[in-house]
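Please predict the structure of the following assembly.
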Amino acid sequence: MTVLPPIIKPEPIPGTHRVLIRVSYDGTAYAGWQRQQNALAVQQVLEEALRKLTGEPIVVTGSSRTDAGVHAMGQCVHFDTHSRIPADKYAFALNTCLPPDIRVLAGMDIDSDFHARFDAKGKRYTYRIHNALHASAMYRDLTAHVPQTLDVERMQRSLPCLLGTHDFAAFQAAGGTAKTTIRTLEDVQLAKNGDELTLTVKGNAFLYNMVRIIAGTMLDIGMGRIPEDAFRTALETGDRLALGITAPACGLELTQVFYQQPLIGQTLFGMVK
Amino acid sequence: MTVLPPIIKPEPIPGTHRVLIRVSYDGTAYAGWQRQQNALAVQQVLEEALRKLTGEPIVVTGSSRTDAGVHAMGQCVHFDTHSRIPADKYAFALNTCLPPDIRVLAGMDIDSDFHARFDAKGKRYTYRIHNALHASAMYRDLTAHVPQTLDVERMQRSLPCLLGTHDFAAFQAAGGTAKTTIRTLEDVQLAKNGDELTLTVKGNAFLYNMVRIIAGTMLDIGMGRIPEDAFRTALETGDRLALGITAPACGLELTQVFYQQPLIGQTLFGMVK
């Protein structure tokens, strides 16, 4: 289990302005979002592209430190720069310097006191399961393969008790740095489309590995390995052992990050209305 | 443009029995289905896995010679073997010898006069388009990226004239080996879901590059580059120049192959009822 160090908030550099970009990536080839010593992270690749583009040693701050193998459709990232590149041109400019498994989708100027992580009011994650005897060749890196028969209705019945504000202490892996384990889930849904199961979860914030623990527990419930009310038990007792496995990283996608501020380009950045 | 040689029907080997398997692959890493001299094809990888499994120098025959970069969910493949492996165990056995971008989904015994290609009564293809300003990081190999604004309703209106039996002479690339260019399309539909456009085409058989020419022409119609009735004009005149571009291989998937014979495991093999 990797213990993540606390995030370091970069000092604003005098004379710079702050830019917010929305980034999508296929996390398969990366050791996660956060820059590391001995492995390639998305943050590093993005910072190297920004250095190439602007000539500046820019440090970026992401809304969410996704794990190795986890994907993103809506990672929001801010950075400070002296560059005169119009903010709405960052996507085109950066994409020429980035590998095809990382794409910048949008960019905008933002107040210099805006913080991509601390100002996030909510996040939506998607977890994809390929439920078939054999793994998917085409979507092997974007889904978790589960060959066992699943009782989907049992899984769907188990989820609503997670909605609302609870102490999710049982729902975190070792290595979390959160000061409080109280979280609010606004939406949790499981949809089935042929062999594909899609779990979507929206909440104000998430503990370390929380979505993967929810997905894994839901799967164990679907296989009949643990009781249907395992989520409720874990919320009441705070006992991690009441829950199931941590589902594999490859099924997880950070789909959207929500902010309170009424910003330009809301649809691109997924702002709260 | 690669000119494909005509398929060589392997001679049945005395004492063998015939097996039919359904194969899925991500075609990104391969020079197409058919074995080649200087590039790795799916057929070669599958034959090497069969050799490893059975010890026999098995030659396989696929229902469709997909191009480089084209994907498959339902490539049907037959071969003759002395092996006593039960046919329904081939998927599990072969998948342990295959890379994760090729998966065998099912297997069954079949009459020794059955031929995966010549007995195919129909095929369904799917063509996926990512219609957004920037390419998709996650689905970059499984979709064709089209940044231009598309008039989807215009595209949808252009398609129905393709239905039925026509001379599709204009709808083939150089290198096709078909004796007749008469084909019957039973279904053609374009669906939109957010940034994703999905074209599905079902017909009795397809000319070389026919689906990619339909997809590319439909896209040119959607951009207003060619008239809305381009398909009708091409059917009437046989003129390839009336049509649009050949859309990129990465958007195409061989989804299902249909056979007349009432076989066991119809749902897995997509037999005509």
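Chain A has a mean pLDDT of 91. The interface with chain B takes residues 24-26, 71, 73, 91-92, 95, 100-105, 132-140, 142, 253 of chain A (CB under 8 Å).
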